[in-house]
Amino acid sequence: MFHVKICGVTTADDARLAVEAGADAVGLNFVPGSPRHLGLAAASAVRAAVPKGAVVVGVFAGATWEEIRRVAEAVGLDAIQLHGLLGAGSDDSIPGSAPVDPPELCRAVAPLPVIRAVRLEAPPPGGDPLVAARAWIEAASRLGHAPVMAIVDATVSRETNAGRLGGTGAVVDWEMLARARPLPVPTALAGGLTPDNVAAAIAASGAGAVDTASGVESSPGRKDPARVRAFVAGARAALGLS
């Protein structure tokens, strides 16, 4: 789906900057409470500025399939990223907790491809830190619509506010990810990636793609041109793309 994604893009200039720097995907945030949240008009303006060939991903958490499809059609999204916590079904949300995105959403938003944000769990010795992610992907597969990609992001608690599910700068345990059995879909790494650590993160984790938001910003939702260019160049070199 992508090799290098710049997420939380909020302006047309930043969208052009990311793609011209060499990113092949940009993310638009539709999660209420996020400092990078976009309304339909602003998102449509950003989408119109994305150069041809780049993938435009809409990021959602806890939204209904009807809302996701409405936004996707209005803005012209190429793919959907589900960033809520992993859930086994649509009835497992807990009032006051972080939003949950069940595997049924993959089928409900088809034919739009789904990218699933997942998180490492602290397993018992010899256990699988991606057991919940694996179960979610398998459940979606049984329903006939598996996600096309997974993004391993920083761990959060069930009490985390929806707007703090990503873009916080928290870092994933790269070595734990490297030791885990690979997921059955292409996997990207997110969580605290910056121009200074992206090459080391790729080397340590074995990730085949990367995603960043806060790591290339001058302030929440505002990308720093020098950091964007440095991040993309470092990521592409580490991935063997340039």
Short description:
By secondary structure, the chain is an alpha/beta fold.
Describe this structure in words.
It contains eight helices and twelve strands. Helix content is 31%, strand content 18%. The protein is globular. The strands form three sheets. The protein has an eight-stranded parallel β-sheet. The chain is α/β, with parallel strands linked by helices. α1 packs parallel to α2 (40-49), α1 (12-21) packs parallel to α8 (225-238) and α7 (198-205) runs parallel beside α8 (225-238).
Which terms summarize this structure?
alpha/beta; two-stranded parallel ribbon; 8 helices; about 30% helix
**N-to-C span:** 18 Å
Please tally the β strands and state the result: 12
Broad structural category: alpha/beta
Multimeric organization: single chain
Global shape = globular
Q: Trace the largest sheet across and list its strands.
A: 9-8-7-4-3-2-1-10
The Rg value, from CA coordinates, equals: 16 Å
Order of helices and strands: EHEHEHEEEHEHEHEHEEEH
* Helical segment count: 8
Instruction: Tell me the fraction of residues in β-strands, as a range.
Output: 15-25%
Low-confidence stretches: 89-96, 157-166
Helix content: 25-40%
The biggest beta sheet is recorded as:
8 strands, parallel
Mean pLDDT: 90
Write the layout of secondary structure elements.
Blueprint lengths: L3 E3 L5 H10 L3 E5 L10 H10 L5 E6 L4 H11 L3 E4 L2 E2 L13 E2 L2 H5 L5 E6 L11 H12 L6 E5 L20 H6 L7 E3 L8 H8 L4 E3 L4 E3 L2 E2 L1 H14 L4
Parallel strand pairs: 1-2, 1-10, 2-3, 3-4, 4-7, 5-6, 7-8, 8-9
Antiparallel strand pairs: 11-12
Helix pairs in contact: 1-2, 1-8, 7-8
